[in-house]
């Protein structure tokens, strides 16, 4: 896609793709629609495994459409997957890091080659529009490569330290980062490619073996990642792919004593429960958690209002607001409020809602009935206490009746209302005025989350924003997205406070090291 056209797909460039991209997506969509409804097995120790119970993966855009049949894995399947990973660990961890990197790079190349298949599946099972879907897949390949880049740049993380000043002896000391063991990756529905593949690629490059457990709403995408790893030649048992309920299969994985580390992306409540359960083992084990956001944008009186309007709408309603980085709070200086808000409403009303595989559509459905009900509950609360600027309703009639479609919603709400601090994860954004930027910053930081944040203002205000905002990913004057659009090697993604546990961002300079622990090797010889 990049080689022939010079176009590099990222979340920042996806708004102006070449025509060839749409042609290939449409051709792949037509081909894959003829194969819907097939059964897909788990992969444990390199072998396909089916279970007695199954579950259907249905499209949230058309719930009559069965995308595939997947396995309802059991506690025994969880145990077998961990056993397979543990058995494969000694050889994989001692495989030269250069060979591990080569295999992960090969898997990344296979994702590139199959990117339109990934994109179609992501659109069908998540409800992403085609550009968001292709972006998720492209990001995954780049996350694989970035982990490899860091391993190579640091020469496998083997570094000589100081030599002890011993008379008559040569005393050398080396710092070596080594893998932990079996790593569990529990991924969410909204980015089932990048948030399965990114942690998996980092864990594998570091020398761990992996058990992948995707969300039950989106098992197909993770299956495609598993196939790329298998076809790249990653040895049996080094990666394992299991599907099934979090309450049984997932819990059995979390509680398994042979799981050495876990990466979880999802809600704060579930993540904290995993953190506590995982902490009840025999010793402290690493838990890399990314737990959502309530992301603000501040617009001062000096802002480029058109850039702000475009960036806010893109980040508020991309993927139906179902991003942990979604721009769900907007604080606007009172002097420009009446100029910016009508433009936000105008741009929001232009967004097309419908079948996410359609070229013209920006918003697909929310992912399931639970999210659909959440939207109705939240809009009910807003109707009782605030004012809708636009939206505020579910969409019905025609194709909307078969899916979970919600109107993108902008609302004014009293600043003491609980929804200003609650992650909603649906297409709702609240807006409010402020008098001075210090007041705006206090409101922006007055939440338990600290994932992403946006700012529009004068150049001499930008450093003040960066210095005072409490968030892990921050953007200033960015029309491509006020709070969204992170990309490996450009904007590593991770949060502060209740948004993240590690203090290091995925796709960045310090991420792959999280999957290794340090060993110091001291050798003393007479001279």
UniProtKB/TrEMBL annotation:
<feature type="active site">
    <location>
        <position position="290"/>
    </location>
</feature>
<comment type="similarity">
    <text>Belongs to the aldehyde dehydrogenase family.</text>
</comment>
<dbReference type="InterPro" id="IPR016160">
    <property type="entry name" value="Ald_DH_CS_CYS"/>
</dbReference>
<comment type="pathway">
    <text>Amino-acid degradation; L-proline degradation into L-glutamate; L-glutamate from L-proline: step 2/2.</text>
</comment>
<keyword id="KW-0520">NAD</keyword>
<dbReference type="GO" id="GO:0003842">
    <property type="term" value="F:L-glutamate gamma-semialdehyde dehydrogenase activity"/>
</dbReference>
<feature type="domain" description="Aldehyde dehydrogenase">
    <location>
        <begin position="50"/>
        <end position="517"/>
    </location>
</feature>
<dbReference type="InterPro" id="IPR015590">
    <property type="entry name" value="Aldehyde_DH_dom"/>
</dbReference>
<dbReference type="InterPro" id="IPR016162">
    <property type="entry name" value="Ald_DH_N"/>
</dbReference>
<dbReference type="GO" id="GO:0009898">
    <property type="term" value="C:cytoplasmic side of plasma membrane"/>
</dbReference>
<dbReference type="InterPro" id="IPR050485">
    <property type="entry name" value="Proline_metab_enzyme"/>
</dbReference>
<dbReference type="InterPro" id="IPR029510">
    <property type="entry name" value="Ald_DH_CS_GLU"/>
</dbReference>
<protein>
    <recommendedName>
        <fullName>L-glutamate gamma-semialdehyde dehydrogenase</fullName>
        <ecNumber>1.2.1.88</ecNumber>
    </recommendedName>
</protein>
<dbReference type="InterPro" id="IPR016161">
    <property type="entry name" value="Ald_DH/histidinol_DH"/>
</dbReference>
<keyword id="KW-0560">Oxidoreductase</keyword>
<dbReference type="GO" id="GO:0010133">
    <property type="term" value="P:L-proline catabolic process to L-glutamate"/>
</dbReference>
<dbReference type="InterPro" id="IPR016163">
    <property type="entry name" value="Ald_DH_C"/>
</dbReference>
<dbReference type="Pfam" id="PF00171">
    <property type="entry name" value="Aldedh"/>
</dbReference>
